[in-house]
Specification:
CATH topology of the largest domain: Heat Shock Protein 90
Oligomer: single chain
Number of domains: 3
Number of helices: 10
Shape: elongated
Distance between the termini: 109 Å
CATH class of the largest domain: Alpha Beta
CATH superfamily of the largest domain: Histidine kinase-like ATPase, C-terminal domain
Helix content: 40-55%
């Protein structure tokens, strides 16, 4: 009898321990789930559960659903973050106090403010006009948009401030329209330049033709002279059309380079011989300084000579009579550096960054001829050879145009 009771008490004790262990385990799981779900705004727990296991199952189901929604939300968040990270427009998100909660790389680069998160809009933006747009958005709780030119930064921006109706903060979207504005300026300059360059020779051709029609053609002295001037104007128009065609082909990649191993000195001498007569007519002296020991360059000789001729022509055009221009070449790192140095009028510092743009002309008065395409063509040819081109100049003291071409 005692043995039976002992066995019964043992079984009861084991059962109690087992149920207690199950209870403790379920309680721990419930505590874990409740902690995970505590931040949820609403929990629709079932009200018809009859025991702890039913409740545990219900919470398990809720937790699984919550985890699924959380995973979906995290995936959307990552996709949105990736989009913001890759955007070229700057994005700042600030709270109601103006403290930045998010800044994408484009915004940090645009405002030159790394590690912008945690700082204020005023600290990061650092421009009163931009700050005013954000303040108006905060005060009116309405979208604000404004185009702003920042001369000190040489930037043209559109800033859009969007209020956050729930959190009281705002989103700032900054679009750098500097390049768009510059392209618009280039377009206007092109129309102005090309109109002038076409109008002048066409007007001259019309006047010369009318003069010949009025009887000058039969004059043995005036007739040939007028015909010679007509030929000169036609040549100018032909050159302009050819430059436009060349630039269009180069920019579209339609020009194939016929690469060969070329001695740098041979290129300089050929270009100097080609431009010697034009330089002499302008009262300039051309010099060539180049060692015979330089390595050959891998280049298209015709195209590289075109670069040199364009740069020499530029030197001749902007150097007063009695001046000179020097063509040089020297060894550089795995390349040969060419230079065309003149004693001309130089280039204003504000114009230096733009001299290689299409149709850009430093000479706004148009005292010199040309469409402003020569330097742009030179830049595209050099870059097609995987080289670099730049200029160093001081107004009133001349200019030095450099470009590099890889060695063969």
């Amino acid at each position: 009898m005692n043995a039976v009771l002992a066995i019964g008490f043992g079984i009861a004790s084991l059962a109690a321990v087992w149920f207690a262990w199950r209870y403790i385990r379920l309680r721990r799981r419930l505590d874990m789930y409740s902690g995970a779900l505590r931040q949820s705004q609403s929990l629709n727990l079932p009200t018809d559960v009859r025991n702890l296991e039913d409740l545990s199952g219900a919470v398990n189901s809720l937790a699984a659903n919550f985890n699924l929604q959380l995973s979906t939300l995290n995936a959307k968040h990552k996709r949105l973050a990736a989009v913001l990270e890759q955007m070229t427009d700057g994005v700042l998100i600030a709270d109601s106090n103006g403290q930045i909660q998010f800044a994408n790389p484009a915004a940090e680069k645009l405002f030159e403010s790394p590690n912008a998160v945690g700082r204020t809009v005023i600290e990061v933006v650092r421009h009163h006009q931009l700050v005013e747009v954000w303040k108006r958005c905060q005060q009116t709780n309405e979208l604000q948009s404004e185009f702003l030119e920042l001369p000190a930064r040489r930037q043209f921006l559109q800033l859009i401030a969007i209020p956050d109706q729930h959190a009281g903060g705002s989103l700032l979207l900054a679009q750098d329209l500097t390049r768009v504005r510059r392209l618009e300026t280039v377009r206007r300059d092109f129309i102005s330049n090309i109109s002038h360059e076409l109008r002048t020779p066409l007007a001259s051709l019309k006047a010369l033709t009318e003069t010949l029609q009025d009887g000058a053609f039969s004059d043995p002295q005036a007739g040939p002279r007028f015909l010679g001037r007509i030929a000169t104007e036609v040549d100018a128009l032909t050159q302009m059309a050819q430059e436009l065609l060349d630039l269009s082909k180069i920019e579209s990649g339609q020009v194939a380079l016929n690469l060969a191993s070329i001695p740098p000195k041979a290129l300089l001498m050929s270009a100097a011989d080609r431009m010697k007569m034009q330089a002499e007519r302008a009262g300039l002296t051309l010099h060539v300084e180049c060692s015979n020991d330089l390595p050959n360059v891998r280049a298209d000789p015709a195209r590289l000579e075109q670069v040199l001729v364009n740069l020499i022509h530029n030197a001749v055009k902007f150097t007063r009579p009695g001046g000179d221009a020097t063509l040089l070449a020297e060894a550089a790192s795995r390349a040969v550096r060419f230079a065309i140095k003149d004693s001309g009028i130089g280039i204003p510092s504000d114009d230096v960054p733009r001299v290689f743009e299409r149709f850009y002309r430093v000479d706004k008065s148009r005292a010199g001829s040309g469409t402003g395409l020569g330097l742009s063509i030179a830049r595209h040819i050099v870059e097609a050879h995987h080289g670099k081109i730049w200029v160093e100049s001081e107004e009133g003291k001349g200019s030095i145009f450099y470009f590099t071409i890889p060695v063969a």
